[in-house]
Structure formats: structure tokens, C-alpha cells
Amino acid sequence: MKTFSVTEFRKQFPILQTVSDSDNIIYFDNAATSQKPLVVVNASQHFYLKNNANVHRASHFLSAKATKSFEVVRAKALKLINANFENEIIWTKGTTDAINLVAQSYGLNFIKSTDEIVISAGEHHANIVPWQHVAQQTGATLVILPVDDNGVIDLNAAQKLITNKCKFLAVNHISNVIGKINPVKELIALAKQYKATTLIDGAQAIAHLHVDVQELDCDFYVFSAHKMYGPTGVGVLYGKQAILQSMPPYQFGGEMIKKVSFNGTSYNELPHKFEAGTPNIVGVIGLGACLDIFSDEQFTSMTHYEQQLNHYLYQQLNNIEQVQFLYQGCPDIPVFSFVLSGFHHQDVATFLDSKGIAVRAGHHCAMPLLESLGLNGSIRVSLAAYNTFNEVDVFIKQLQALCLGELSEKEQSSLSVASD
Ligand code: PMP
């Protein structure tokens, strides 16, 4: 295996290059969005400077060039997740948009009042609210699979809760709060026994795991480019061809039509049927540039490094008495959620921010999960492959200083009294 050089990898991210000490940033909020490498920025700039034209429509040279560089990325995305056909890759705005597409098109048309839609207690709001809406509109019942003490979807409970009423299963591959890999293959197999349709929210998994949709045998897999070093505003909906073909369009307008007359309209073939209007061309091209990071060899050594960092941070956090993890055990990817006893989560984030360390505090768009633990927020620290052991040490030192009360008067007075 080629060894991964974090120093070389970091060089690709201009925002991480320290200009001065006061500018120094330790970016530990990667589960929210990752930083962007120069190749992504350059690809976007190059497109606007040299290739800019709309795709799929004009008969001129620039449009042909734009279309080619745009469509090439579909093949790269297919390879990333091992889809069967290029037209199974639908460009969306991101994970949320992709789930909404499936909920509106599949959910509202194929789910009936006697059906059950099964999700889990650990879902992001993006994989709860669209299904609540479908349940309200169709009269279907929303069934919630519990997570166990380790934060993983409970398979024993799932065996009882997934029944012949289950029409749709939508669960996350890895939760953005818990950082553990869910047994999605087993859950999909369970749902398939009852001919249910399945969707996996891969927003957190895609940057850290090798995903093979054919091996998982899921019907849909969704993710966002911006959490895997790519641009914001673009994401992927993978769907099995036959299911996508059976579904009505989600949005209507240009691109998604074959023929329009005032007597009626016929729709385009996949994938265009689900890509109404001008797509995020530059976003897709930026995603294409960042997908080269995910070449098999680089990815294997990169995730190996991430695992070492993950275990190191877990050990270090475990040494701080006041750290209370939300769930037992080391996460599978470097996403750590905890509370610091005696401190309000927001205070901890504000203090760390004053030291140049960016973490997240709040409910992380998973209010039901936090509420089930009696919390209205936690601190979340999430790492990427450009983070270093040294950064972890700096972070731990600051957290210890906070716990030991080694703060200046100014820092002390900026902390509010922990009210919850
Ligand atoms: N699901 C999970 C597990 C996530 O972590 C996120 C982003 N935090 C989303 C869905 C939504 O992704 P986006 O905001 O890119 O649509």
C-alpha cells in the first residue's frame, strides 16, 4: 500500500496553509463540510474562463466541450460507487435534494395508507422530514428503528419492526452525530424479504468508506459532494435503473422533456428526466476534479491514516474526565460527539474558536436523537484526512486547559453559566 503523506495532502488545500499564527485554523468541522483542494477551485475557474456554455442543448463548439466535461463526471461517479449504468447517476443539489426527489416522486406515488416507512432514531433531519411529509400525505405510518448503546441501529429490534407492511426503508450508512457504521447490508436484506424499497443516506460515509451499491443491493444511495472535498450545491442520487424508470419526474421544465405541445408533454430518458433546468455545471465539474482523490490506492492509504487519527483522538478524549461521549466505544470514522460536564456545549465551541479551533455545537440536525438522550446539544469534532496528530494535541491541550480552569479573566468572563 502506498503510504499517505498528510503533509503533501494538506498542501492541496489553500485554506489550511498558515500565513501567520493569528491566521492559524484547526478545522474540525468536516462532517458539516470539508475544505476544498486546489484542483476543485482550479477546475471551476478553468471552466468559467475557458469552457463556459450551457450543456446538452446548443450545436456550437463551446457547448459540446462543456457537455463533454460535464458528462465525463457521471462515469467517474459510477465508478466511485460501482453503479451498473451511467443513467443511474442523477445530479442533485445534494443529499437533502436527493432524498426529497425520492420522497416526492417514489413516496407520494407508490406508498399507500396501509404501508409503513421505516427510518431510524439516528437520522439527520434530511432523512426524517421528507418521510414525515410522505406519511402525512399518504396516510402511511412512520416506524422508527432504535439505536443501541453503541449508537448503531439495533438489528434485533429491526427484525421485529420490519414486517410485511414495510414499503420503504430509509436509513443512514453513518450518522453525522454518532460516527458508527450501521449494518445497512443486513437491513436492506431484511427489507427485501418483504419486497420493500431501500434508500441509504451516504452523506457521512462517502468520504470515509468504499461504497459498492451493487454489493449493498440498495435501490437508492445518496450523497453530497461538499462533504468529500467537492463543491457545495451538487450531489448524487444513485437509483437502480428499473426503479428510476418507473418513477414520475420530480420537477418539470427544460431538459427533462422529449416533446412539448399544448396538448401534452413526453418526458426525456434517464438521467435527464430527473434533471430539470440548467444543472450545476461547474459544481459537477468540480466534483469530477475531486473524485481523483478517491482513486483506489490513494483512498486505501488515506482511510488507513484517518483510522490512526481516529483512535488517537478517541484515546486522548477518553483521558479527560469531563468528556462524556454520547455513545459507547470508538466511532468508526472520526466523528465524535460529547458533552463536557460543567460546561455548556456552546461555551466550549466559543472557547475553542477563540483558540482557532473550529468545532460544531448544537443539535447537528438530529434533534430527535439528542432529545432521546435528554440533551439539546453536544459538541461535535469531526476530522478529515488533512488533519494531523499535532492538531489533535493542540485541541486536547486547550480542552484540558478549559477543564482545569486555566483561563484568563477575559476567557472566564466570556463563558456563560451552563444552564443545561
Ligand atoms: N444526512 C446526513 C447523515 C448528513 O450528515 C447531512 C449533512 N450534515 C445530510 C444528510 C444533508 O446533507 P446536505 O446538507 O448536503 O443536503
UniProtKB/TrEMBL annotation:
Domain Aminotransferase class V: 26-395
Keywords attached to this entry: Pyridoxal phosphate, Transferase
Cofactor: pyridoxal 5'-phosphate
MF GO annotations: cysteine desulfurase activity
Catalyzed reactions: (sulfur carrier)-H + L-cysteine = (sulfur carrier)-SH + L-alanine
Family the UniProt entry places it in: Belongs to the class-V pyridoxal-phosphate-dependent aminotransferase family. Csd subfamily.
Coiled coil start-end: none
EC number: 2.8.1.7
Organism of derivation: Thalassotalea fonticola
Protein name: cysteine desulfurase
